[in-house]
Design goal:
D-Maltodextrin-Binding Protein, domain 2, 9-stranded mixed β-sheet, 9 strands, 44% helix, 19% strand
Length: 325
């Protein structure tokens, strides 16, 4: 009887290799559950889990539960986390070529920027990631970033002296300085109180972030300055990706493609809904003539490109793709 039980248990264990070898991919991002990041992460989870027959599970952690973007980059390089979604600027210290995307007024619209990043140029930048211990799976939707807060920006002169919280990085800090503002470094978690107490006059973000992160409660104006079109992308830890079978790797890539589509669709929808909701909350949508903003900001391009590896070359590729001179 004891021998029979041992054989039976051994048979059960041998019949469950999938459970014994199951892999959990932790996937982190910094935005709210209503964001296009989260919609994409959930689609990635759905496709991977359905296609792997229980061999892979994906656990999604929104709102910086795995740390900020810089920390997640570091964690993924060592294999401490499986995957993450990040904006472009936090990658610039690791892969400085990405700084070309922080040029002000590089693109004219969300669709134009996404068209470039979903093609050969985007692939060229994804190919830079493996040398840093990362695997770039796909670009997601860009963010169209504008100035919001307690003051209207109807002309370039209105930017003069404005204290504006911006993303850290030369492409953002120097741009706002060139436009006459006072870029103010500050943790994202401190922005709400800073706006509420008028420590800063404004900040820069995409309209849906103002709604999703409750900044609408301390905002009087959303100014459609459209200064940066900031990329976002899904990245996986190379050590973990390399541990997958070829079939699992292809499943992950297919899931990333479907996640990209969810990102593009969700961003467009939440962007449009946010503009409506801002108006409903008595936030004035200001639409300045951008010609003078663009002219002033583009004077900065040579200085910014001087510190970007392959910057001139990549700028020419981007401009050729979108038909600029």
């Amino acid at each position: 009887m004891k021998l029979f039980k041992v054989l039976a248990i051994g048979s059960m264990i041998s019949a469950l290799p999938t459970l014994a070898n199951a892999l959990e991919i932790t996937l982190g991002h910094t935005l709210a559950p209503e964001s296009h990041y989260h919609a994409a992460a959930e689609k990635f989870k759905e496709v991977v889990e359905a296609g792997s027959n229980g061999e892979i599970t994906v656990s999604v952690f929104p709102q910086s539960q795995l740390g900020g973007e810089v920390k997640m980059i570091q964690s993924a390089r060592t294999g401490a986390i499986g995957a993450f979604i990040t904006a472009g600027p936090p990658l610039e210290n690791t892969i400085p070529q990405f700084a070309v995307f922080s040029l002000p007024y590089l693109f004219n619209s969300v669709d134009e920027a996404n068209g470039v990043l979903q093609g050969e140029i985007g692939d060229k930048f994804l190919e830079l990631l493996p040398d840093a211990g990362l695997v770039g799976l796909n670009f997601f939707s860009v963010f169209e970033r504008s100035v919001y807060g307690g003051k209207p920006v109807r002309t370039l002169a209105d930017m003069s002296g404005m204290k504006i919280r911006v993303l850290q990085g030369p492409g953002f800090v120097q741009t706002y300085e060139a436009l006459g503002a006072q870029p103010t470094p500050m943790a994202y978690s401190e922005v709400f109180v800073a706006l509420q107490n008028r420590v800063v006059d404004g900040a820069e973000a995409s309209p849906e972030q103002v709604i999703q992160d409750k900044f609408v409660e301390v905002t009087d104006y959303f100014n459609m300055t459209k200064i940066h079109y900031m990329p976002s992308l899904l990245i996986m830890s190379k050590p973990i990706f390399d541990s997958l079978t070829p079939e699992q790797q292809e499943l992950v890539r297919d899931a990333a493609r479907q996640a990209r589509d969810a990102s593009l669709e969700t961003y467009k929808r939440t962007y449009e809904e946010a503009l409506v909701e801002l108006k409903e909350n008595d936030v004035e949508i200001v639409e300045p003539d951008l010609a003078e903003f663009q002219s002033k900001a583009k004077e900065l391009w040579p200085n910014l490109l001087a510190g970007v590896p392959e910057g001139e070359e990549n700028l020419k590729l981007i401009q050729a793709k979108i038909g600029q001179d």
